[in-house]
Design brief:
The structure holds two protein chains of two kinds. Chain A is 68% helix and 1% strand. Chain A is mainly alpha-helical. Chain A has a single domain, classed as MetI-like (MetI-like fold, Orthogonal Bundle). Chain B has a single domain, classed as MetI-like (MetI-like fold). The chains are: A mainly alpha, B mainly alpha.
């Protein structure tokens, strides 16, 4: 995952049980008088207008782009021919489609698996305080807070085939240099490694806060019964952490699907499309070539929206169910 | 835990943190490396006998980009707070009809991939002549922060005691007055938390910058780095020095904002 997306895309971290969203289980205040309704909406008008102008309209433009045959000329001067689902048919038949879809799925699932496992292991490790634990845990947040361009360009240099430090280390333990970013075999692996690194802090923080809500007495009781550390993890921690884990993984899914910056900066989806995902392919079509293909680019983007919103709806459902009695 | 065991844990934690932060250390190390040592094998593990040339290049080439990023960041903060704080007040305290739907839409808005928003913005900005403007980039960058900001503010303002607002009302204050003179001052910590994240995200943005401001004078520092990578593959010390400078806001956030991020925890929205 990354963020920022929009680094941005960096998700907010919620404390389990205290949801920030609209679905908190609290009694609804009694509906007020009509004048108060007017006042309430007066406060909401800016955000409602904002949502229409800066979310709904760009989305609408994107759908419109995907349904017409745009050229650079018609993009500027208008008059593009309406082609219905022609752009969608075109991209589905494109030889780049299946690889991009496969890479998106592999990128997302492998990233999530490693980020979650490493994040969970670290969360358990940091669960009980020891000297310096708070400071060191805070330092783990650094990769999450860095601008993605910084992380991505640093990793590009670390993984440079000829003079990167990664190959220098491998050489010292007797492994021949790996062509990380320059060969189709390794490019996807390379961007996945960088993405895992960026996503670990988020998993660590959320799972750590989840661990804090498991009562300590459970572990004490288990210890008295003679359960070892491993058994305690599988019998207490893992089952009780399930709700938080589900939320973490689903949010991670949404945010990893739309990762663009890291891949684009490190490999531009190459070489020869070997690390292209739907996100980078969409950008490539619209902005990456001398002759932009806005229609197909928008169509790929809309497919991505469908995938992300499906994951998003599942997330909201799960979150709602968990936080409502 | 026995003292020896916790000492061991601290040692392991130090090693793990070292591994995790190694790429960051490497960025700093390379930023001081002389060009002729850049391709040495094995590399210099410490920046001994290094050079400040990389940072000189930053001062020489990148100051305008840094200025733009600063302006875009501050503008994004202002716009984000101005849009989201009033909305959150209404959602938290005024029980508007349709508030639930609006909250749902804001949650869904967070799920939309940035590049798709960027494409829509590009089409719209082209018609309005807003490409390559600071204002246009501020608006686009604020879309990253506004949904998050409304959620944070709502959670925080819900925790304001109703009695406080009722007392102000009894004294004759109108809704607007209550919002401005009671709710906003009390929500100071939420304002700081939202501002810090909005600034950091705008500062870090690459997607909107590269689609909407790729030419002209309104390019932010993320594009400064990106063009550096493209143009001079030889001077990686300059690239990494720019990266170090671009990381400063994040570092400052981590050091000074921990307290404010912790303040967000009280609202139950953000945890350190």
């Amino acid at each position: 995952m990354s963020q920022r997306t929009r680094a941005a895309d960096r998700p907010s971290v919620r404390r389990p049980g205290e949801n920030a969203g609209a679905f908190s289980p609290r009694p609804r205040p009694v509906r007020r008088a009509r004048s108060e309704q007017w006042a309430a909406w007066a406060f909401l008008v800016p955000v409602a207008v904002y949502l229409l102008a800066f979310f709904a309209y760009p989305l609408y433009r994107n759908v419109e782009l995907s349904l017409r045959d745009y050229t650079v000329r018609s993009f500027v001067h208008g008059g593009a021919k309406f082609t219905g689902l022609g752009n969608y048919a075109k991209i589905l038949k494109d030889p780049a489609f299946v690889p991009a879809l496969t890479h998106t799925i592999v990128f997302t699932l492998v990233s999530l698996a490693f980020q979650f496992t490493i994040g969970l292991a670290l969360a358990v490790f940091f669960a009980r305080a020891f000297p310096l634990s708070a400071t060191l845990r805070a330092l783990f947040l650094v990769p999450w807070l860095l601008p993605l361009i910084v992380s991505a360009s640093t990793w590009s240099w670390v993984l440079n085939t000829d003079s990167g430090v990664a190959n220098a280390v491998l050489q010292q333990i007797g492994i021949p240099p790996v062509t990380w970013l320059t060969s189709p075999t390794w490019s996807l692996v390379s961007v996945i490694i960088a993405n895992i690194w960026i996503g670990i802090p988020f998993n660590l923080v959320v799972l750590h806060s989840g661990l804090q809500s498991i009562p300590g007495q459970l572990y004490e009781a288990a210890q008295i019964d003679g359960a070892g550390g491993w058994q305690q993890f599988w019998r207490i921690t893992f089952p009780l952490l399930r709700p938080v884990s589900a939320i973490t993984l689903l949010l991670g899914l949404v945010y990893t699907l739309k990762v663009f910056d890291i891949i684009w900066i490190m490999t531009r989806g190459g070489p020869t499309g070997s690390s292209a995902t739907l996100a980078t392919w969409s950008y490539q079509l619209s902005f990456g070539n001398l002759l932009p293909a806005f229609g197909p680019g928008a169509a790929v983007g809309n497919l991505l929206i469908l995938m992300a919103s499906a994951a998003g709806l599942v997330y909201i459902r799960v979150q709602k169910r968990q936080y409502q009695p | 835990m026995t003292p020896r065991r916790s000492l061991l844990k601290t040692l392991i934690a130090l090693v793990l943190t070292g591994i995790m932060l190694f790429p960051v250390y490497w960025m700093v190390n390379v930023s001081f490396t002389r060009p002729r040592d850049m391709r040495k094998a094995p590399p210099n593990w410490l920046p001994i006998g290094g050079t400040l040339d990389g940072y000189r290049s930053v001062l020489h080439d990148q100051l305008p980009y840094l200025g733009t990023s600063l302006a875009v960041g501050l503008g994004t903060v202002a716009l984000t707070v101005a849009i989201s704080a009033p909305a959150a007040y209404a959602l938290a305290k005024l029980a508007p009809r349709g508030g639930g739907v609006l909250s749902f839409l804001l949650l869904m808005a967070q799920m939309i991939p940035g590049i798709i928003m960027a494409m829509g913005f590009y089409a719209g900005y082209l018609e309005l002549g807003l490409l390559n403007t600071v204002g246009g980039l501020i608006v686009a960058d604020s879309t990253i922060a506004v949904p998050f900001a409304v959620l944070i503010f709502t959670a925080f303002m819900r925790a304001i005691p109703d009695e406080l607002l009722q007392a102000a009302k009894t004294d004759g204050a109108g809704v607007l007055r209550i919002f401005w003179s009671v709710v906003m001052p009390v929500s100071r910590n939420a304002v700081v938390t939202v501002s810090l994240f909005a600034f950091l995200w705008a500062w870090s943005d690459f997607v909107y910058a590269s689609t909407l401001d790729s030419g002209g004078a309104a390019r932010p520092i993320t594009l400064g780095i990106y063009h550096y990578i493209g143009n001079n593959n030889q001077e990686w010390n300059a690239v990494m020095a720019t990266a170090v400078v671009a990381s400063l806001p994040a570092t400052v956030l981590l050091i000074i904002a921990q307290r404010y991020v912790a303040a967000g925890v009280i609202s139950g929205a953000v945890k350190d």
